[in-house]
Amino acid sequence: MAINRRDVLSASALLLAGPGFALRAAADGAAAPLVLCWNENPYGPSPAARRAAAAALADACRYPSDADLEGLTAALAAHEQVPPEYIVTGTGSGELLCALALVCAREGGEVIAAQPTYLELTDYARGCGAEVRFVPVDAELRHDLGAMAAAASPRTRGMYLCNPNNPTGTALPADALRQLIRALPPQVLPIVDEAYMDFATAPGVASVADLVRGERPVVVLRTFSKIHGMAGMRMGYAIAPPQLARSLRAARMTTPNLLAVRAARASLEDQEFLAATRSRILASRTRITTELARQRLRYAEPQGNFVFFDTGMPLATFTARMKARNILVGRLFPPFDSWCRLTIGTEPEVAAFLKALAASLSA
User: Fold this and answer.
1) Neighbouring C-beta atoms of residue 180, cutoff 10 Å
2) 180 and 315 fall within a common domain
3) Which of 252, 269, 286 is a domain's end point?
4) I need a surface site. Which of 73, 147, 262, 284 has the fewest CB within 10 A?
5) If you ran DSSP here, which 8-state letter would residue 299 be given?
6) DSSP, res 36
7) Which of 269, 301, 329 corresponds to the end of one domain?
8) Phi and psi of 252, rounded to 5°?
9) Same domain, 77 and 152
């Protein structure tokens, strides 16, 4: 079937229309809820990424070529300052977390993780037959590295370290992670998930990706779902020493789609847009924490594009009150049954949330 210019322009318009277009168009006049529960970046892909994806629609009948995949890998390697053989792309970093879970679960392996934390790796590891040992976060809602190190056993094959952590938003200094990683038994693979590192501002918090060139295996994961605003396109990557990278490639389930590959490469080059997006999200984060402090609501020190705070009431009550005001907020993360994880939206969305927050607290 021939594709004419109008078809391409119509598809391009959908991509360039901005976040929320499809939701608003499908609402049949009803006000769509504000979705502040999934840690998405409301500013969406950069203009360069949108143009690349729109242009790729004409080739969507094709699989990504070797040139596409190798080009993205080379661009990521240059960005991370490592040789290309250290880079493993995936259909979102979630696919790579599942692949790592599969690797760690072999022969009855065990995985250690904080509680609460992001559960994609741990849930998949359990499904693969691994035992998962959770270690509660400390009083500041940070990873308790001493307790996590003490939990390691001869069967432990992986330690998942989400830094900044999801859902708490807290982050550990790079030096603390380096010290832990050096002290772990050699059979324990440190898996450092840096999905939210681009939003970190606390002193000493930084990537530990340079450790992949060290003497012991370490893997660091990154994603295009957060700062790059491409959650719906599914693109992520791992940085790992070559031998581990080969094992991880073999454990992948799919290959990234063409639109995501080309959009990701374009997004890497659009640093001005990424910096502007970061600035807006950080400003809104401060606006939220300032109001939480004014309301005397406790919150964990946020280092991601979300804020984890104590609502002062059962979370089910708070979410119901917010839903009644057409705002969807985060789900329950046991054992924090009164705490809410709030995604940082656009400036108008943040304003709407703060207004609803005041009303919900006084209800």
Assistant:
1) 18
2) no
3) 269
4) 147
5) B
6) -
7) 269
8) -65, 155
9) yes
Is residue 284 within 8 A of residue 344, CB to CB? The reply is yes
Write out the E strands in the chain: 34-35, 87-90, 110-115, 131-136, 156-162, 189-193, 219-223, 236-239, 306-310, 327-328, 339-343
Number of domains in the chain: 2
Q: What is the mean pLDDT of residues 203-229?
A: 97
Read off the pLDDT of residues 23-55 as tens digits, 9 standing for 90 and up.
444 445 678 999 999 999 999 999 999 999 999
Contact 306, 341 (CB under 8 A): yes
Long-range pairs for 76-82 at CB < 8 Å and ≥24 separation?
Answer: 76/237, 76/268, 79/268, 80/209, 80/239, 82/209, 82/212, 82/213, 82/239
Q: pLDDT (tens digit, 9 = 90+) per residue, 242-301? A: 999 999 999 999 989 999 999 999 999 999 999 999 999 999 999 999 999 999 999 999
Q: What is the distance between the alpha carbons of residues 333 and 335, in angstroms, rounded to a whole number?
A: 6
Is the same domain home to 27 and 168?
no
